[in-house]
Amino acid sequence: MSDAPADPDALARGARPRSIGARIRRVEDPRLLTGHGSFTDDRIVPDALHVAFRRSDHAHALIRSVDVAAAAALPGVVAVLTAADLADLAPVRATSRMRDYHATAQAPLATGKVRYVGEPVVAVLAESRYLAEDALELVEIAFEGLGPVSDPEAAAREGATLLHEEAGTNVLARREFARGDVEAAMAQAPVRVGGRFRMHRKTPAAMENRSYLAEYDRGRRLLTLTSSTQIPGIVRDLLVELLDLPGHGVRVVAPDVGGGFGGKASLYQEEVLVAVLARRLGRPVRWTSDRLEDLISTSQGFDERVEAELGLDADGRILALRADVVGDVGAYSIYPWTAALEPVQVVSFLPGPYRVPAYRGRVRAVCTSKAPTGPYRGVGRPVSTFVMERLIDMAAGRLGLDPAEIRRRNLVRPDEFPYRTASGIVWDRSAFTESLAAVLEAADYAGLRAAQARARAEGRLVGIGLATYAELTGIGSRISAAPGMPINTGTEQTTIRLDSTGAVTAAFGVASHGQGLETTLAQVIADELGCRIEDVQILQGDSAAVAHGTGTYASRSAVLGGGAATLASRDLKAKLLRAASHLLEAGTDDLEARDGAIRVAGTDRAVTFRQVARAVYSEMGRLPKDAREELESTRVYDPFFGTATSATHLCLLEIDPATCRVRLDRLVVAEDCGRIINPMIVDGQVHGAVAQGIGAALYEEVVYDAGGQLLSASLADYVVPAASEVPPIDIVHLEAELPATVGGFRGMGEGGTIGAPAAIANALADALSPFGIAVTELPVTPERLFRLMAAARTPAASNPPKEPSSWISS
Amino acid sequence: MKPAAFDYARPGSLEEVVSILAGAGGDAKVLAGGQSLVPLLNFRMLRPAILVDINRVPGLSALEADGTGLRVGALTRHHTLETSRLVRARFPVLATAMAHVAHLAIRNRGTAGGSLSHADPAAELPMLALLLDAEIHTRSPAGSGRHAAGGFFLGPLVSALAEDEVVTEIVLPGLPPGTGWGFEEFAQRSGDFAIAAAAATVTLEGGRIAQARLALTGVDETPIRLAAVEADLVGARPGEALARAAAEHARTAVNPNSDLKASAEYRRRLVAALVARVLASAWARAGGGAPAPDGAAERDGAAERDGAAEPDREGSP
């Protein structure tokens, strides 16, 4: 703690938090970095059965017949199941109060027909995964093709082949946001820019594949699902309903989880199946996805087509914005978020951090015969930010304005908060304009533009790109994380207790899968309670730990978990001080708690937490009976609305005209996430999220062919950036004004993925601006860039002998 | 993604190896580093009856130079080729190319003999074998055999090896004095298979090109040599116009495939760019000027950036 903030006076007073704000190393890292983490697949269960799935190789087909006889006869095979064997199980439906929404029925195994390549059809249970996969080869399935439903725009038309006949349409959700008379405002706008934008489909590609282990204790009638999930509480609640078990008869535990990025934030068929089979057979059942299965069946994201137009006055001030979004949501409406989650957020966040007087955003979520989509880091906002930030730059180009200047003219100003956006989101004050100014200063923007002019004079294709965005984080109960969803994602609970030895244990419903919550929540508790971080043990990712909790997603855990931790710590501290006041014979106002001890201020009289705990629990007689309060507090925190987090990203890059290689030279991020609990963890989240944004901008693309076959089915074909593809990232932390959340925290786990693609797209467009090339489609892969440059006949002939060194003077 | 059942043998001599191969009647695979073989087994794209592990066969890891050139044992690991002083001194183009083979963990296991036998059409070592006119020594029940690299690669993942034949050694003939080299690869990511890569050696005599060798990978069903382009270079004086002409010649000489990563047209453009660059590097190094030592100048910016991107740098603003 030597690197705690230097404010000796405040520290001496004990008034200022001592670990919040410090670059404290993550307490989980020694475990994870030395191979002592314990992930679902690490759990050794001697007599577990292994499941393997025969998955559909058809995009859309009737299942005419399934012959499992040969597979079932193979030695070591315990059972072979089809949908018929699970007929007593109700299908899962992600319901919503949203109008014009159609839920889809999804059973653990495809029933009647298959709707995407990779959908599980037959499950084999065997003594080993090897034997199970041997048996899969003996399963005979007769399919009758129904024709793929590949193009969402065609699928949305009347008369299209239906994926879910009972819905009567492939449009699973539609929504419109409107403010003002957008037609009139657009008609009067002297400057109009627009285009058709496309973000291709992504997959989260977490390092740990999905993994589930179900154990059923018949004696205790307890089903335990160990799951690589981000949402143990939601999975528990669903299993209770599905299996008609009491809540305390189902426990869902997410142990160490190797990344999720949203891909582990939904319920999966395999998860339900292992639970059902373990209960039915009375034997542990496990399944761990291999990478191929992960790439074809884990929820995908970001697959939108956006027609958008921006109208401005002659000074570059926005007058109107309109957009029509088609989201390709894949084959099912995923539980619990629904198919509306991603595409609706594209239109609700499209106006971004700007003043947009007139707006109309329409969206349709269209099902297709591809893997279901779900939440993916950034949800909707990477796409909305890409589109809006491109429009802003296109407008700047048309008006001859600098991209920084047009943003200054349109960003919501500090005196305009709280600001209600055209789609109804309310921004509390956040560093919209300040982050732009900070990025320009940190990057020496004027100097960069001068360097760019010199490089251009040499024929070099160098680009500078800006992107400013705002997002809503730490969402409370007033706003549903997904539209109309019947699940409360707006509260989190914690129970913090001092046990009879004086140790502090705090149980949460959040479920860290890489965010470092064991560290940051301990920092919050240590400061509020007056103990050391190492005195605090965080329990999380266990549905049995708290009465209600949903998990970790949507940039919520620091805000909601940190808020609940603050409230419960304060309660518990008050109890500690009351007990100590008896022991020290001093008024509670004269007491201060620090480093796990309570002192009479200005004296050397003190009792440790352990001594207080003993007096309360063990050493009867030291405290009056009425003064022995239980040293425990449970509190729920509900931020009610949520809070804005904002940032500006700046990207510098160069294109090699001979090879069309894009070299990222530098990224600068200025962000406002309120009060920072741990700057090192915030930096890490920004680095990781920006890397994923680089993937979205330049590398990652799930590719289906016209027949619905997945072509990007390995990590050689689905290209995730590695450390060598990530340039230096400079980060500026800002605190415009603390939000009204308890603790002053804002969520920030997703932001990098929101800003980086737009900044990179703008930098590419800037580099190519001498040739009038529009960047409207991400990722800009080498092939795509080649086609853009070939169409614009950019000169490749200069053909420098080597890739040039950086154009930025360091 | 688990392999089908197979038998496993770990013989201690080449005689045993080829005898098992012969006995399996084409249903055996040789296991060396396993970096390409094991994924194919796991995908069940290969289902051999038996794997013959040659890692315990003595005498297959030699790496030595003699009057005729460099002898590379079949079990020499990629990382050894990348870092060996001997290779760096005699064939810096090979050491440089090997740094582009996948990632360190893979280079620590993957072997020279395995890479040639696997005959991936986008791999680096087959291209280098072709460029450097390697002779590939083998053993079969009939005795020792030799293949010129020029006739060894027959198609994607298809080599001239017989079912009972195993690579024992790769012999690289020494380069004449006054030879410079160049290597360039375009992959989407550091460590990926090449979308296109080019390598050249150029020998200068009296300021003119006495010998030129130019090889490509990633742009055809096998690595290829560009004999016609090489022939046009011989006798010419190096220069920018010559590089441009050779690049254009190479662009039209190749007949690349289109795939998920790159179209044929884009690969042609890459061929032109990479050929111009490898020739310029090669004759700069051959031209008596100080060639870049150990290929350090050939590394692209990514390697340099690694150090600068220290993620938890203290004191970042």
TrEMBL record, chain A:
Keywords: Molybdenum, Oxidoreductase
Aldehyde oxidase/xanthine dehydrogenase a/b hammerhead domain segment(s): 34-147
InterPro entries reported for this sequence: Ald_Oxase/Xan_DH_a/b, Ald_Oxase/Xan_DH_a/b_sf, Ald_Oxase/xanthine_DH-like, AldOxase/xan_DH_MoCoBD1, AldOxase/xan_DH_MoCoBD2, AldOxase/xan_DH_Mopterin-bd_sf
SMART domains: Ald_Xan_dh_C (SM01008)
SUPFAM superfamilies, per the entry: CO dehydrogenase molybdoprotein N-domain-like, Molybdenum cofactor-binding domain
Tree of life domain: Bacteria
Name assigned to this protein: Caffeine dehydrogenase subunit alpha
Native source organism of the sequence: Methylobacterium crusticola
From TrEMBL, chain B:
Biased composition (Low complexity): 285-295
Cited Gene3D superfamilies: 3.30.465.10, CO dehydrogenase flavoprotein, C-terminal domain, Uridine Diphospho-n-acetylenolpyruvylglucosamine Reductase, domain 2
Basic and acidic residues bias locations: 296-317
Every FAD-binding PCMH-type domain range: 1-177
Pfam families xref list: CO_deh_flav_C, FAD_binding_5
Swiss-Prot/TrEMBL keywords: FAD, Flavoprotein, Oxidoreductase
Listed SUPFAM superfamilies: CO dehydrogenase flavoprotein C-terminal domain-like (SSF55447), FAD-binding/transporter-associated domain-like (SSF56176)
Region (Disordered): 285-317
InterPro entries: CO_DH_flav_C, CO_DH_flav_C_dom_sf, Diverse_Substr_Oxidored, FAD-bd_PCMH, FAD-bd_PCMH-like_sf, FAD-bd_PCMH_sub1, FAD-bd_PCMH_sub2, Mopterin_DH_FAD-bd
Record-linked PANTHER family: XANTHINE DEHYDROGENASE SUBUNIT C-RELATED
Name the record gives this protein: 6-hydroxypseudooxynicotine dehydrogenase complex subunit alpha
Organism for this UniProt entry: Methylobacterium crusticola
Lineage: Bacteria, Pseudomonadati, Pseudomonadota, Alphaproteobacteria, Hyphomicrobiales
